[in-house]
Specification:
Elements (H helix, E strand, L loop, with lengths): L1 H24 L18 H5 L7 H21 L1 H22 L9 H18 L2 H14 L15 H18 L8
Amino acid sequence: MYRSSVIPPLRLVFLMWLSFSIQFYGYIDLGFLGILPRTVSGLIGILAAPLIHGSVSHLVSNTFPVLFLGSAVYIFYDRIATQVFFHGYFLTNVLVWVIGRPYYHIGASGLVYALASFLIFFGIFRRNFRSILISIIVLLIYGGLIYGIYPQDSFVSWESHLMGFIVGMGSAFGLSKIRKVYS
C-alpha cells in the first residue's frame, strides 16, 4: 500500500528532473513552456509549467514537498487522491493563466500549495480525529507556506501559490462531503 502511494508523486518528480536535465544538459531554456497568462501560447503551460524549473534549488524546493505531500494524500485518502492531485495540478494552473501577471510562471509550487492546503483544510472540514491529526502535522511542517501567497518577490509566482492554496482548500471542502474517502 505505502509503496504504491509513492508512485504517482514519484512519477511527477521523475518528469520534473527529466525536464530539468534536458534543459540543463541541452542548454535549452524551457521557460517558454511556462504559463503565460491570457495568451494562446501560454496555454501549454497549464500542462508543462509544473515540470519546468529555473534552477536546481527551485527544483529541489519543489521535489521534497511533492513527494511528501503527494504521498500523504495517496496514503491517507487514496480514494480521492487522484482527484486532489488533478485539481492541484490543472485547476491551479488554469487559474494562474486567468489571473497571473504577464510573465512566464514555472514550477510545481502551485501543486505543493494545493496539496498542503488540502491536507490542512480537509481535517478542519471533515472533523474526525485522523484527519485533524494529519492537518496538524502538515500545518506544523508546512505552515510557513502561508507567507508565499503574498506578493514579496517579483521573480516568484505568488499567484501560483495563492491559486494552489485556494484550489486545495476548495477541494478539501468539496471532497469532505463525501462519506467514504479512506482506504
